[in-house]
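In the laboratory, one determines a bound structure by crystallizing the protein with its ligand and collecting diffraction data. In a computational setting the workflow is compressed into a single prediction: the sequence and the ligand go in, and a structural description comes out. We illustrate the idea with pyridoxal-5'-phosphate.
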Amino acid sequence: MAFEQRIPRDTSANLFAEAQEYFPGGVNSPVRAFRSVSGPPLFIREGHGSHMTDEDGNRFLDFCCSWGPLIHGHDNPHIREKVIETVVKGTSFGTPNRLGNQLGKLILDNHRYVERIRFVSSGTEAVMSALRLARGVKGRNKIVKFDGCYHGHVDNLLVKAGSGLATLGTSSSAGVTESVARDTLVLPLGDRDLLERTLTEHAGEIACIIVEPIPANNGLLIQDKSWLECLRIKAWKHDVLLIFDEVISGFRVGFEGAAGLYNVQPDIITFGKVIGGGFPVGAYAASKEIMDYIAPVGPVYQAGTLSANPVAMAAGLAALELCLEPGFYEGLAERTAAMADRITGYAKEKGYPLHVPHVGSIFWLAFGNERIERADQIDPANMTYFKTIHHELLQTGVYLGPSGYEVGFVSSAHTDLDIQEAVAKICAAMDVAFSEG
Ligand SMILES: *Cc1c(COP(=O)(O)O)cnc(C)c1O
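The predicted complex, in structure-token form:
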């Protein structure tokens, strides 16, 4: 169908046309290009609280929240003050600084699953470093990952399953060599027998298993606690390390992330997104014993010019302080559940094939009525519904990430009134999407 624009988008369209002259596809990260939804991407001018405003002056209730970092919404006053107070003293020294200590302490004091941490500048860098660390500790090359989990654009992880079941991976991006891809074994989530067979067949070759304990980059594929426990036990049994990639779930579903939620102890955890309070911060953390493999103590090299820079540390510190306030995560989860359940209820009442799985303050518009736990259970044909819903929501002032495979986030800046408004508008958008025959 053709999508009718009922809001002005000319300024964004013009800026996007200009951006084509500078950036491949007009963007600096691919999903931003709006290729799976209609119209030009919105150029956002500013954001405050739960709302942001584009260059045409349209105001949106934002559930993308910069893809996850903004757990306190836009322009949070506490974070803003800390950042301003810090930035006037200089932005980067390339030396240790007190704010790094403070953020490190705050995290380690309140997270039972890690003892030492290293700050880096993105989630991808955290994952890349964690993999090198695991290989360095074990002295082995291969890694096991799961179909449907995203771990940033690390070479070894831009890999899809080859033909056949427990095959070695094949590259899913030009520029990732087959020799690198072959070090990655890609398995479906939840297949315990195949995991056991793979770990047995490749005994002595595998350094680690990496998993998003709450896969949230390809829909929201909520896993059973028993599967995560199974990963823990099998990793111990076969003497490989278990990495939880908590770049999304860390400090999001609780201060201790998925490790705390499921009470499963991984060997290494990666962080990103929320940890930086809206600035580029990532981190990886583990026991002291494992982290002592990192330079300058140990043989695994890893460094960063802007790592733990004071402004980013100040933002992260301010953000995580707010997360530690009593009842913070409970309140967020309650509001998210209320929203998700009301949308699911409406869909059920109307007979629409949609439900809204949620955990903590993460939610996803899932098509169909069955619980979806694996990537291959998502029917790409349903994404036409998402396209209509996304378009309708833009017209009525609600912003979701521009792809049906992306999850949404509720922030502490979203009020009960915001949630009510979102439910009404999402239900109205479903009416349009599902009545088109
Ligand atoms: C976002 C994300 C990454 C990549 O982080 P960037 O900061 O975008 O490099 C890695 N792993 C997971 C689970 C993520 O959600």
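The chain has 13 helices and 18 strands. Keep in mind that any predicted model is a hypothesis to be tested, not a measurement.
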